[in-house]
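In the design runs reported in the main text, the only information available to the sequence generator was the tokenized backbone. The following block is the verbatim input for one such run; it is reproduced so that readers can re-run the procedure and compare outputs position by position.
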């Protein structure tokens, strides 16, 4: 029996906040603000309409619903039953269709290998004990030639200053303790994990926040938040 690739403390932390997932003024405000931007990027790259999509670490379903609204057939998986409960309830409000399942990426890969056109794993890798295991699972889940998207946080002095000191303590964009700097992942490390799993990185793009305008944007600056698009060989 394999060890579950999850940190109980992380699951507990997000489960306790689950009821606030769809409140755009809550701790999840940054997710609501970046969702249209990352959704547009995914859709431009993978053309979501008609695609079979898996959202790994879907939480309360913000991205899952966004992809469903673009015409994708979406399955969302997570290990927080409370977050999934909130996600399912929100479908009554949105009228969208998403299949939410309590399962790990690794277990899902064993059950449904190569069944998805697109796999997304956003804002999750920095919260699991073994990100390489999650990446390998995502690679097994996607069809050959399919798309896999990841987003996470770079590991350097600037990311520590902005993502933890700035975002959690000074600007209070996120609750204190949201991130552990030791779990941040350099783009070179993520790219290596992807290649080892049979994924070919094709685009690396940064995501920045301007505290003066309070606007997020995608661009070349990958020093803090970044996203990567890969395809399966």
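Verbatim output:
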């Amino acid at each position: 029996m394999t060890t579950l690739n999850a940190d109980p403390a992380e699951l507990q932390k997000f489960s306790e906040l689950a009821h606030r997932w769809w409140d755009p003024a809550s701790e999840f405000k940054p997710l609501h603000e970046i969702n249209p931007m990352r959704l547009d990027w995914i859709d431009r790259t993978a053309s979501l309409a008609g695609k079979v999509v898996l959202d790994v670490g879907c939480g309360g379903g913000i991205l899952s619903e966004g992809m469903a609204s673009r015409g994708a057939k979406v399955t969302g998986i997570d290990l927080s039953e409370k977050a999934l409960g909130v996600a399912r309830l929100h479908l009554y409000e949105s009228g969208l269709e998403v299949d939410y399942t309590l399962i790990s990426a690794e277990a899902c890969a064993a059950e449904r290998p190569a069944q998805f056109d697109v796999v997304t794993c956003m804002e999750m890798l920095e919260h699991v004990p073994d990100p390489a295991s999650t990446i390998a699972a995502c690679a097994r889940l996607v069809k050959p030639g399919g798309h896999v998207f990841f987003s996470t946080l770079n590991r350097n002095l600037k990311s520590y200053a902005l993502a933890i000191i700035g975002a959690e303590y000074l600007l209070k964009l996120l609750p204190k303790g949201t991130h552990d700097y030791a779990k941040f992942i350099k783009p070179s490390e993520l790219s290596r994990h992807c290649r080892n799993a049979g994924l070919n990185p094709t685009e690396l793009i940064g995501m920045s926040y301007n505290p003066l305008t309070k606007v997020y944007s995608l661009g070349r600056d990958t020093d803090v938040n970044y996203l990567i698009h890969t395809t399966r060989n």
